[in-house]
Amino acid sequence: MRLSVGFKIGFWLALLGTFATGLMGFYAYTQSREMLIASSQDKLLTATRVLALRFSHSVNAVASDVRFLSSLSALKQLTANRSDPKLSAIYRKQLEDVMTSVLEAHPEYFQVRLIGAADYGRELVRVDKVENGVIVVPESDLQEKGHFPYFFKTIKLSPGEFYISRINLNKEQGSHAGQGQPTLRIATPVQTADGSIFGVVVVNVDLNSLFSFIRKDIPADINVVLTNQEGDYMVHPVAAKNFGFDKGVRYRIQEDIAELSPMLERDNQDSMVLNTANVVSPASASVAAFVKVPFVSHAEHRFVVIGLLTPLQKVLEESRALGMNIIRITLLFILLALGISFVLARYLSRPLNSMAKAVQRFAAGEPMTGLPVDRNDEIGYLANSFESMASRLSARVDELKSKQQFLGNLAYHDHLTGLPNRLLFLDRLKQTFIKAQRNRTRFAVMFIDLDKFKEINDTHGHAVGDEVLKIAALRMQDCIRHADTLARLAGDEFTILLEDLNSPSDPARIAQKIIAYFEQPFVVEERELFMTCSIGISIYPQDGKDVDTLLSSADAAMYEAKEQGRNDFRFYSDNTAESRQGRS
């Protein structure tokens, strides 16, 4: 039996339509699957970096509390009157009250101590957290701590420096609520008026409470791990593996995920994203992101590794749903093609060719145009279905790009003021530096510190302090050009990048404008608050041949402004350099 030409054309057109539809569906599915995995990896890495920043900020916050305790007036009076038992008892009681308040205000702390340098490191004041509150340990129960690293290493430090211990299980006797708990100790020396070391202030941090606070926004289906620099688990979904190195059995992450070994061994790799086995259930796959978080104590190079793992199956749930829709649409198109191609082969050849070309353009990444969508027959229906599917796929891609853009903005901007953060500021500073080198132009870096902001924050609370920071940011933004960059580095520290200086007097004019603007009261919750600022200015190229030197010069000039009475600005100069060497 000889087949007609029309039947043959219809057969081959049906086959071509089936193949093109299946190819488009397969391409759409594989591309969407890869995009979902890549998007999930990017979001997971961003979340891990945010978690790492929270960890670093939490450690810095503890160090700030330790600095606060070491600078207390009661402690200074205690060091000055240690030979007078009556006065010593009064100031010791005041110190105990402050330490008790600190412990009550911080659920992540379970012990605050003042350890004297004399008598083999005997504790002078100790406040412990217990099950039902906070207690001041009586003098008869105070112990000698001279043999612990957090004592004998801290007393060798200079005032203002901090000792940060290794994270391990607390095995000290009589530590009450902290007994056997994961612990991080941060300490700083206390100096007398004559420059001798009186003792050390130590805060013991409960790692469980600290990490619960850090991971508070992480969904429950995402596993969190924390290891030390040797890879030993300190936080693991399986609690039995936590701090195995302190219990006689080591559980290390590189034994579960061998790909992490290079990151633990090399200094130049601070993050990693990969698809790997689940650390809880090795039989299932996970998308994982890991970030190395360095923290330095007593000139020791140490770090922890924070990781987030989410099941690959959950990541691909949307891909599976999209795949089923693509299969349904593809089957529908195949049936339609088979039904009409053998009947209307000649009539359908031209629109089908145009559709095939449109699909090929879409597969190549171009817009799906040229479809016969204005027809009122099956071809028009088929074309409209292609266009609808392409629109949904494009919308999905746009949604993924929008989410990536949001996460990128979150990673490079300060959440409180909306200003660029340290990462974005440094990137713009490097780009400006390269452009200035090429074009032989000048630019300035201004380092701004808010005078006595801490007093406002401590007196009126963090909510008022946050509003003051927002107002300060708006005032400084009003004083600069749109082309300039205002950034918040941390706390009450801001920087301004002034590009393409027309005159060396431009930075001085802007600094004067900011200082004058700050003389107006800051009105928050119907309260008038007053705050000034100190500004340091460095100019490229005379104040630094690289980015780090320019920042350091501006910082040094700012400190000179503070030393000269605050509420003023200073340019970097040779005198500034000598002053900075004197401070170092």
Topology:
Layout: H1 5-70, H2 73-80, H3 85-105, E1 109-116, E2 123-130, E3 133-136, H4 149-152, E4 163-164, E5 168-169, E6 182-191, E7 197-206, H5 207-214, E8 223-228, E9 233-235, H6 253-256, H7 261-265, E10 271-277, E11 285-297, E12 300-311, H8 312-315, H9 317-341, H10 345-363, H11 378-412, H12 422-439, E13 443-451, H13 453-460, H14 462-478, E14 485-490, E15 493-498, H15 506-518, E16 522-524, E17 527-529, E18 532-540, H16 547-563, E19 569-571, H17 574-583
Helix pairs in contact: 1-9, 1-10, 1-11, 2-3, 9-11, 10-11, 13-14, 16-17
Walk me through what this model shows.
- The protein is α+β, with helices and mostly antiparallel strands and 584 residues long.
- The protein has four domains: 5-41 and 316-400, no CATH class; 62-210, Beta-Lactamase; 220-312, 2-Layer Sandwich (Beta-Lactamase), CATH 3.30.450; 422-583, Reverse transcriptase/Diguanylate cyclase domain (Alpha-Beta Plaits).
- The chain contains 17 helices and 19 strands.
- The strands form four sheets. Strands 1, 2, 3, 4, 5, 6 and 7 form a seven-stranded antiparallel beta sheet that branches. Strands 9-8-12-11-10 form a five-stranded antiparallel beta sheet. A five-stranded mixed beta sheet has the order 14-15-13-18-19, sandwiched between helices.
- The radius of gyration is 32 Å and the shape is globular.
- The mean pLDDT is 83.
